[in-house]
Amino acid sequence: MRHPQSAAVRAAAIAATVLVAACQDAPTGLPPDASFDRGRGQEQMAAWFNRATPEVLALPGAVFVDHDEASGRLLVGVANAAAIRGVQSSMTRLGIPGTAYAVQVTEPIYQLATLRDVFRPTQGGIQIHFSQYVCTLGFNVTHSAGRSFITNSHCTARQGGTEGTVYYQPASNVDGTVIATEAADPEYFKGGICPRGKKCRYSDAARALYSSNTASTRGAIAKTTGANNGSLTVSGNFTVTGQDNGTTNFPKGTVVNKVGRTTGWSSGQVTNSCVHTSVQGSQVVQLCQTFVSARVGGGDSGSPVFRITSGDNVTLVGILWGGSSSGNSFVFSPLKQIQDELGAMTATQ
Predict the structure, then answer these.
(1) β-pairing verdict for 199-201 and 146-151
(2) Could you say which DSSP state residue 93 is in?
(3) How many other C-beta atoms are found inside a 10 Å radius of the C-beta of residue 220?
(4) Which of 121, 151, 171, 266 is the most exposed place for a label (fewest CB within 10 A)?
(5) pLDDT by residue (tens digit) across 183-208?
(6) Structural contact between residues 203 and 343, judged by C-beta atoms closer than 8 angstroms
(7) How do residues 59-116 score in pLDDT, each as one tens digit?
(8) SS3 label, residue 66
(9) Mean pLDDT of all residues in 161-167
């Protein structure tokens, strides 16, 4: 399920920044203070706001400075209580009376990235670009042939066979750096268990070797704001603390998850296991695959598939490569079969 680059994807990926705006309306309910000229309230508060901002925001732990119209004071946000004393000292030095401001502990403000933005170092679940298509970076690994990532075989210039496909992240027109080059993608075979007129493999997986100047984090998968809500906003990370190197037949009802550049984090139950799966519109058959009842969309190809073990710790179980036309079911290749075809690898942190 690779996806042609849309106009939105071709646009430069710009992280949405949360801004804290300062209001400079006339204050109301100003506290009585001998140093505060109530007749010049708006002018005085604006002056203090402008005076305090550069010095206070330079302090460790400072989050914001606001001219708070509701209280008629300056409001200073700090990340922890230890930062309060520094704010107070700066205000005193600036000649701003204690009755003209308040300090509160608040959450830090972050730039909000999506799965389609630039990530350095790279991690699982984010967008990659090759040729005219986009897919998802599955997971970073240590391999005997070098530091690599795993994605789908069909997320290469030619499915099956190694021809040196180059990858960008998130797209060549956003960051023209080649982050990796296809290094291993076994040919599909014919005969034996493979149906007549078809070509087969046990995993839709390929390995790309990282460029020396591209940083990557092994064992990290991007975590969005919640499962099955369609969000692409990255709010943290899953940590790969285990990898299932032996299972090819997952019990029905097993809950697994995936993170992909199109539909984000989705979670659902295994409905069918070790299914020989024909790929619509092609001669390809993927042998012994697993079906999951969970949301998927074009471009999610390559998504890491994992079980959550505790908190944000996860066990890697495979890589997503396809899904139903309704988008309500995805298919993944088990990690054991990926390693049988690409060689042993370490994906844990």
Answers:
(1) unpaired
(2) H
(3) 21
(4) 121
(5) 999 999 999 998 889 999 999 999 99
(6) no
(7) 999 878 888 766 788 999 998 999 999 999 999 999 999 999 999 997 766 545 589 9
(8) strand
(9) 98
Distance CA 115, CA 131 (A): 19
DSSP states of 187-248 as a string? PPB-STTSPTT-EEES---EEEEEPTT--EEEEEEEEESSTTS---BEEEEEEEEEE--S-S
Distance of alpha carbon 73 from alpha carbon 91, whole angstroms = 13
C-alpha separations of 5 from 131, 139, 339 in Å: 10, 22, 30
Q: For tokens 């200073």, name the residue.
A: 76
Burial of 275 (0-12, 13-18, 19+ CB in 10 A): middle
C-alpha 93/C-alpha 45 separation (Å) is 16
50 phi and psi angles, rounded to 5 deg: -70, -30
Per-residue confidence (pLDDT) for residue 56, from 0 to 100: 87
Range list of β-strands (E), 294-346: 304-310, 313-323, 330-334, 345-346
Q: Per-residue confidence at 9, pLDDT binned at 50, 70, 90?
A: very low
Q: How long, in residues, is the chain?
A: 349
Question: Under a CB-based contact definition with an 8 Å cutoff, are residues 333 and 297 in contact?
Answer: no
Task: Show the 3-state SS of 97-163.
Answer: CHHHEEEEECCCCCEECECCCCCCCEEECCEEEECCEEEECCEEEEECCEEEEEECHHHCCCCCCCC
What distance in Å separates the CA atoms of residue 252 and residue 240, rounded to the nearest whole number?
Answer: 23
pLDDT for the residue numbered 280: 83
**101, 36, 114: which is closest to 72 by C-alpha?**
101
